[in-house]
From TrEMBL:
Pfam families per record: TetR_N (PF00440)
Organism: Anoxybacteroides rupiense
Gene3D superfamilies reported for this sequence: Homeodomain-like, Tetracycline Repressor, domain 2
Taxonomy of the source species: Bacteria, Bacillati, Bacillota, Bacilli, Bacillales
DNA-binding is among the record's keywords: yes
Protein name: TetR/AcrR family transcriptional regulator
PROSITE patterns in UniProt: HTH_TETR_1, HTH_TETR_2
Alphabetically ordered keywords of this record: DNA-binding
Domain HTH tetR-type: 12-72
InterPro entries: DNA-bd_HTH_TetR-type_CS (IPR023772), Homeodomain-like_sf (IPR009057), HTH-type_Tx_Regulator (IPR050624), HTH_TetR (IPR001647), Tet_transcr_reg_TetR-rel_C_sf (IPR036271)
Length: 201
């Protein structure tokens, strides 16, 4: 890789300062009440400088959201090549547990995401794109299972994947609430049972 110039390094550092400051500002004020002026002041950068990198607070938040959701996508990217239904069940259970554990770990940021999705068209559009990325990846695993005689062949992988992600997403959002009417392990068990018994032979 080409070595970055001092100017490029400084630009990266400035951008990261703005992102780091935005976490504090959004967590302290919520998405709606946070302002880009507060972020600029917290980052200690020039007003004009911030607008070189971001159009507005929504733009900054989208980058924060993408960074957080990459952790969740790493779970979706765990290699999936089961040879039996039982092996598939164990792999799926492991992924569900990791996904929901992340939801608990990232609870405060997910609460912000939920708020922002309902307010900002840009954030809502980005969330829709992130959803589709997960759904595409899940559909690949479903198609693999069908090709290897493990899953029911008459089901459409993309539709199965869509339903599966939406179910996980619902539990993910619920785990960010103050009072959760189920335990993590109960959620993992029921999601895994519904999915594996629903699509696997």
């Amino acid at each position: 890789m080409k070595k970055l110039s001092s100017r490029q390094l400084q630009a990266m550092e400035t951008r990261q300062k703005i992102i780091a400051a935005s976490y504090d500002v959004f967590l302290e004020n919520g998405f709606q009440k946070a302002t880009i002026s507060q972020i600029i002041q917290k980052a200690n950068v020039g007003y004009g400088t911030a607008y070189v990198y971001f159009k507005n607070k929504d733009d900054i938040f989208v980058e924060m959201m993408e960074k957080t959701m990459r952790k969740f996508y790493e779970v979706a990217e765990i290699p999936f090549a089961p040879r039996t239904k039982e092996e598939a069940r164990h792999l799926i259970e492991h992924q569900v547990r990791l996904f929901l554990q992340l939801a608990i770990q990232e609870q405060r940021l997910l609460q912000l995401m939920k708020e922002a999705i309902g307010i900002s068209d840009l954030v809502a559009k980005k969330w829709k794109a992130i959803r589709e990325q997960f759904i595409t990846r899940i559909a690949q695993d479903v198609a693999y299972s069908q090709a290897n005689g493990l899953a029911k062949s008459h089901l459409q992988p993309s539709l199965v994947a869509r339903g599966w992600f939406y179910a996980n997403e619902m539990y993910m959002w619920e785990l960010t609430e103050q009072e959760v009417p189920f335990s993590l392990e109960d959620a993992v068990y029921h999601l895994t049972e519904m999915y594996t018994n629903g699509i696997y032979e």
